[in-house]
Specification:
The protein is about 35% helix and about 25% strand. By secondary structure, the chain is α+β, with helices and mostly antiparallel strands.
């Protein structure tokens, strides 16, 4: 029997939620950016947050109001653990960016805490607790951000299941984060109102083409399907310069482009890294033309999963 571990550090990557056509159920991880959580086992049967550092520091220290804290509360209660956890969070992802910032803290804390259990859970078994944490920030239990962080790559995240979608290794995404904040709740308010049945039919067809295109490695299917007819038209007005940024990506031969998560970040899917780099440059130039600075992240769509750090 291995010795009990009392402290662990874990990293969770950023993510592109929704991927345009998969609102609340489809997402992929992003290489290079993410959050780190340090979790310690403590004797007190509770969860507490002792520090938050980095890109965001004004988050709640009260565990039940913090995504990382709530995820570990859910884990403790489900497993009836006799001990508790203390969390430190190092934020590498700004909130309100559309890059999965709230989810990354939640998943990093879960993966670190999991390493302290005598019998660690699988990523799939951690999923319900990640949903409990994510709900603190978004108001709903949707897995399009936490799912890809737990499994890596492109993931279909339903209410109670995670399914990894195979994607060609060469396919890359350019993800551009403008220096602006768009709160998730405000972005969700923009979705209120009626939708036409024909819009749901079109979106269903588009999602099916994207998923089938990924599994088959058929870029023509992805090009035909990667167009969000439900959410993007309502959120685009909240993102300054969006139309020009999307057009720049398409003119650079991206397979498709849309809003990352709730925005304001914008992603473009490309058939190789060189095209993604070219599309990303065109996108940042389009934001600059609108007077907005931005950061470019290049990532394989089959991106990394959360992991325990040495």
């Amino acid at each position: 029997m291995s010795a009990v571990r009392y402290e662990a550090r874990a990293f969770a990557p950023g993510s592109v939620g929704n991927v345009g056509v998969g609102f609340d159920v489809l997402g992929h991880s992003i290489a290079g950016i993410g959050d780190v959580a340090i979790v310690r086992r403590i004797e007190a049967p509770t969860v507490r947050i002792s520090a938050i550092r980095g890109a965001v520091t004004d988050l709640p220290l009260e565990a039940a109001r913090n995504t990382a804290g709530m995820a570990l509360i859910a884990l403790r209660e489900a497993l009836a653990l006799p001990f508790g956890f203390e969390i430190e969070i190092d934020k590498g992802i700004p909130l309100g960016s559309g890059l999965g910032g709230s989810a990354a803290s939640c998943v990093a804390a879960l993966v670190a805490a999991n390493a302290l259990l005598e019998v660690p859970l699988s990523p799939h078994a951690l999923y319900p607790h990640a949903l409990a944490g994510e709900a603190v920030a978004s108001g709903g239990r949707h897995g399009d951000n936490v799912g890809p962080m737990l499994l890596g790559g492109l993931v279909l995240a339903t209410a109670d299941r995670l399914t990894k979608i195979e994607v060609p290794a060469a396919w890359h995404a350019a993800v551009v984060h403008p220096h602006a904040v768009l709160e998730t709740r405000r972005a969700r308010e923009a979705l209120a109102g009626a939708y036409a049945l024909k819009e749901f039919v079109a979106q269903s067809a588009n999602l099916a083409q994207v998923l089938l295109g990924c599994e088959r490695g058929d870029a023509s299917l992805v090009r035909a399907g990667l167009a969000d007819v439900l959410v993007e038209p309502r959120r685009a007005p909240l993102i300054a310069g969006f139309a020009a940024v999307k057009q720049a990506a398409l003119e650079a031969d991206a397979m498709g482009a849309s809003i990352s998560g709730a925005g304001p970040s914008v992603f473009a899917w490309c058939e190789d890294e060189a095209t993604a780099r070219r599309a990303g440059g065109a996108m940042t130039a389009a934001f600059a033309a609108a007077g907005i600075d931005s950061d470019l992240h290049l990532t394989a769509i089959a991106g990394p999963a959360a992991r325990v750090l040495a």
